[in-house]
Amino acid sequence: FVHNTTRSFWSFGSARSAEAVVWKAAIKAEALEGSNRRNGIKCTSKSKDRLYTAGAQWDARKYFERFRLGTLFKRSAALGMPEVHNKLLYNHWSSPRLLKLGKQVTAPILHAHCGLPAGSAYSDLFVKAYACEPFDKFVAKCTHTVLASYFDDNFMSTSGSFDQCRANIKEAASLMHQIMDEDLEATLSYEKLGTIASDQTLANAIAKDLGGLAGTIGTDLVQLGVDLRLQPKLRSRRKTIRLRRAKERSRRLARVS
Predict the structure, then answer these.
(1) Residues linked to residue 147 through DSSP beta bridges, in sequence order
(2) What's the CA gap between 8 and 219, in Å, rounded?
(3) CA 249 → CA 127, 235, 239, distances in Å?
(4) I want to staple 53 with a disulfide (CB 3.0 to 4.6 A). Which of 39, 159, 213, 252 is the partner?
(5) Which of 242, 243, 145, 228 is nearest to 194 (CA)?
(6) Running DSSP on this structure, what letter comes out for residue 181?
């Protein structure tokens, strides 16, 4: 099962992180800007040979609560999850439960049909099982767009000419919206959407194509409550401590070298 669900687009798990996605996107943008300069193209140039980067950052609302357990376990079985694990977890996660408010208790007993339980050691595996096939469809069709998925956050990025970036993100956003609606049955958190590009003109053009799916538009994205972004500024005390430790480490490294 682990082998069958291993994909390059997962940004969680062993040796993977949300920060790595942000840094890769930033490095890609800097590398292309450096390539532009070597070719004598300024960052404000409108030359057709100029290279750009662009991306769309989406966050799903109450993503884990919308997993249909029947669909989830069918997909996990198809990907090779052992039958004993599937049956045990399905019976456990959909087991009878009572909802209590004060001294009032629900009647009749309710069974869960949707949602992953918080804190389960199996949650990460089943997030992959639920979204693996739909995201494979995305990757197969949007060959010029890179997908990075961090649980309920998805970042779609591309690079190329102005028109290529615009067309790629438009195609990717259209397909991802269809996948979220039909395959994952999830809704978007529209206040947390973001459209980013290495040039503001390109960002505005992509936002025009995406309409209500554009969200915040710019050449950088501020703290939006989304995991796929750089962390906000550290508090002054924590920052001071980290700087002091960094100074001590640099001294040790200097002695070793």
Answers:
(1) 156
(2) 25
(3) 38, 21, 15
(4) 159
(5) 228
(6) I
Question: In terms of DSSP bridges, do strands 146-150 and 194-197 run parallel, antiparallel, or are they unpaired?
Answer: unpaired
Q: What is the pLDDT along the chain (257 residues), one digit of tens a residue?
A: 999 999 999 998 877 877 788 788 888 888 888 887 887 877 766 777 889 999 999 999 989 888 999 999 999 999 999 999 999 999 888 888 777 788 887 777 778 888 888 778 888 899 999 999 999 999 999 999 999 999 899 999 999 999 999 999 999 999 999 999 999 999 999 988 999 998 899 999 999 999 999 998 988 765 544 555 544 554 556 667 767 777 777 776 666 55
pTM attached to this predicted model: 0.78
What DSSP assignment string belongs to 54-81?
EEEEEEEETTGGG-BHHHHHHHHHHTT-
CA distances from 159 to 28, 151, 162, 174, 216 (A): 8, 24, 9, 18, 20
Between CA 79 and CA 158 the distance in angstroms is 29
Backbone angles phi, psi at 185, to 5 degrees: 50, 45
Tokens of 178: 């269809």
Other beta carbons less than 10 A from residue 107's beta carbon: 8
Which DSSP string do the residues of 124-140 spell out, in sequence order? HHHHHHHHHHHHHHHHH
Candidates 211, 207, 187, 209; CA nearest to 196 is 207
Burial bucket for residue 137 (CB in 10 Å: 0-12, 13-18, 19+): middle
- In the numeric block, the tokens 């992953």 are attached to 116
Within 13 Å of residue 87, how many CA atoms lie on the same side as its CB?
3
Angular region, 105: left φ>0, alpha ψ -120 to 50, beta rest: beta
